[in-house]
Specification:
Elements: H1 3-9, H2 16-28, H3 31-38, H4 42-56, E1 61-64, E2 67-71, H5 73-100, E3 104-111, H6 115-129, E4 133-140, H7 142-150, E5 156-160, E6 168-176, E7 179-183, E8 193-194, H8 196-200, E9 205-208, H9 213-222, E10 230-234, H10 237-245, E11 251-253, E12 268-273, E13 280-287, H11 294-307
């Protein structure tokens, strides 16, 4: 074994995220500033810098309560090399992207209610793998997304299949089981599941009216020959949740945020609908007969990997009592 090989075994491999945190902390002067720059928690940045110091066997920064960080002599010597290391890593990613041919402009679309739940993750993951792509996005109702694709302003889009036009080619991605939503103090919020028959007897349905959601949701009742009584209609998903949170009625919805609070901070409770109900179905759409660019094909692959999931993805909807 050569001397350089033995020396390399003395140190564990460097973690680029730790190096990135060190460089950001040195530039920002505080762990808080570095955390804001990197979109991490302050504790995560502090732990990363401490981990790098353990790996290197030197102290890089002097922490001082309520005062800016100070670079140690070792930190001053190693900071330029750390910056060069990050630059080299970024160059490597860019060269890999150029070699794969995944570069250039790409605009993707997503149906309004689904976009907040899936688009941030998709954009973040795609750009991490393909930094050379000039990525933009559109969100809105399906007809607007289809019009953008026909005009060449959008390469492909994730749409609700109910509103798709015949000239659009669809590839199924995911189904989402609808649920009932109640204020926390509504008696039905304590059930494990609710029957559509029981809901139809109420007179306070708050209908999410954005097409095609209204047709889909009312179709759940129609499939059982039920006619619910609508108290309010709105095309705003968050306003539906806000009215429910105020106890002004109940709602049926499909897409569900990761939290159970309205914009006002009021708790709402999602309850499973009993029996067999149709899923809200979403698909990847493009103009029929069009050819995807390499970057669009790469985004389509990512959608298949991340969104091809069974009904009720993400969170189960069970409550404390039946």
């Amino acid at each position: 074994m050569t001397g350089s090989s033995r020396e390399s075994l003395m140190y564990p491999p460097l973690d680029l995220r730790q190096v990135q945190c060190f460089v950001a902390a040195a530039a920002g002067g505080t762990m808080t500033a570095a955390a804001g720059e990197l979109h991490l928690s302050q504790s995560a940045v502090s732990l990363a810098v401490a981990g790098l110091e353990r790996r290197l066997g030197v102290q890089l920064l002097v922490r001082r309560r309520a005062r800016p960080l100070l670079l140690t002599p070792a930190g001053r010597r190693l900071l330029p090399t750390a910056r060069e290391l990050l630059t080299s890593a970024e160059d490597l990613r860019r060269e890999a992207a150029a070699t794969s041919g995944v570069a250039g402009p790409l605009t993707v679309g997503c149906f309004t209610t689904l976009a907040p739940l899936v688009l941030p993750e998709l954009l973040d993951a795609f750009l991490a793998d393909h930094p050379e792509v000039d990525l933009g996005f559109l969100d809105g109702p399906v007809p607007e997304l289809e019009a953008a694709m026909r005009a060449g302003a959008c390469d492909l889009a994730i749409v609700d299949v109910l509103d798709a036009s015949p000239d659009v080619e669809l590839e199924a991605l995911m189904g989402v089981r609808p649920y009932a939503l109640f204020a926390a103090d509504d008696p039905m919020a304590r059930r494990r599941s609710v029957r559509l028959e029981d809901l139809a007897r109420r007179d306070d349905l708050i209908l999410f009216s954005l097409p095609p959601s209204a047709a889909f949701l009312m179709g759940l009742f129609a499939a059982r020959e039920l006619e619910p009584r609508v108290r309010h209609r709105t095309s705003s998903h968050e306003l539906v949740r806000g009215l429910v949170g105020r106890g002004l009625g109940y709602a049926l919805l499909a897409t569900r945020p990761a939290h159970d609070l309205t914009h006002e901070g009021r708790e709402v409770v999602a309850v499973r609908i009993a029996g067999d109900v149709a899923d809200a179905r979403f698909a990847l759409a493009r103009v029929r007969g069009s050819r995807l660019t390499r970057q669009a094909a790469a985004f389509a692959r990512l959608c298949r990997e991340r969104l091809s999931a069974p009904s009720d993805p993400g969170r189960s909807m069970t409550n404390s009592s039946s």
